[in-house]
Structures are given as C-alpha cells and as structure tokens.
Amino acid sequence: MNTETNTATTTKISQEVKIISSTELLNYAQMFKNDNCRLIHIGAAKIADKFELTYAFDKEYTYSGIKVIIDIPSDGSNENNKIIPELNSISDFFWCAFLYENEIAELFGIKFNGLKLDYKGNFYKTAFKTPFNNPMANKKIDIIRTPKK
Asked: How far is CA 95 from the centre of its chain?
C-alpha cells in the first residue's frame, strides 16, 4: 500500500489495487456500495492477449481499486473471428458505471451482462468497430479518391 501525505492539508491518501477474478466482481461492487464508496473510474487496457479492467473507488480520501484480468478468447480460425469476452455490469450498484461500460464495450469489444443502459454500439462514432481490439485499426489504410469531372 502506498501512502502519501499532502503537506498543505495533511490528508493521508491511501492507494491499493487488488487483482480479483471476474466471478468476484459483483461481490466486490456490492461490498463497495454497502461501504458507501463512490465509483471514481473504470479503465481498460489491452495487454497482449488479455484485457485489464481497473475499477477505482473512493471513501473519505481513501482510494481502493480492483483489477480484473480477462483473456481475449479466440476460436483459433483467424484474428478477425474472435469470441466476445463477457463481464458482469456493476451498473446495478453504481448507476454511473453504464457510461464507462458502454465506452469499454464499444472501444474494446467486451460485452457487459446486465448493463442498465446499453447503447448497443451507438455510444461513439468510430472509424472501426472496437478500435482498441481491432487488427484493422493498427494497419495503415490508403484512401483512393476519384477525381471530380
């Protein structure tokens, strides 16, 4: 656990992140809700063949984080034919989570089960579907324009 002291206000700031399994996510969300914590942020990153989702909570200047690491499943046929990874939504416990979860769903292609308000792919306009988990987004695409007559 890292602890910093801000000399201007002498407030102790505590930070810790615990790695949990995807099956534990709803139990932890319920625990944070019961403890009157607030959801600060949900962040996502694609690292090699895994997704890391970090959930940040706060109560009285005490930060608590949980990290869920999920494999990027593949059916083995090709890079474009991936099985969609799924995770339970915490929007039952923290209403504002629907914003983060819709964003992650559209940018990374993770499906959130039980999402209270699902934009079904219409939250963002992107050039590619799931640009942070799309091999086409990493390739240069040349656009050929036809001259006007």
From this structure: 15
